[in-house]
């Protein structure tokens, strides 16, 4: 039980971290405009207000953004295709956890 509690707490602490537009762009090695475009098309979350300067991103958003960047660069994929690949990958991981298969 202790191990599960520790993992839950870590997830909450990371989830509470809020990255700015510039921070998430820098962490992904992209321009802020790349992030803005994906938020405006709904591929990334975090932009809940109209002003990009006030957007905040979680660690989950950061992981997703890094996966998107990787798929776009490695396969020269457009943003919609990269989003589909990342969505399907996340769904496969979720289903494997559900049935207890190794990731």
UniProtKB/TrEMBL annotation:
UniProt-listed Gene3D superfamilies: 1.10.1660.10
Superkingdom of source: Bacteria
Protein name, per record: MerR family transcriptional regulator
């Amino acid at each position: 039980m202790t191990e599960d509690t520790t993992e839950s707490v870590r997830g909450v602490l990371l989830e509470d971290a809020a990255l700015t537009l510039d921070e998430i762009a820098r962490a992904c090695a992209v321009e802020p405009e790349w992030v803005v475009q994906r938020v405006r098309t709904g591929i990334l979350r975090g932009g809940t207000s109209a002003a990009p300067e006030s957007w905040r991103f979680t660690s989950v958003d950061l992981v997703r953004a890094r996966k998107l960047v990787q798929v776009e660069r490695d396969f020269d994929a457009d943003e919609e295709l990269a989003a589909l690949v990342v969505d399907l990958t996340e769904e496969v991981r979720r289903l494997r956890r559900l049935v207890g298969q190794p990731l």
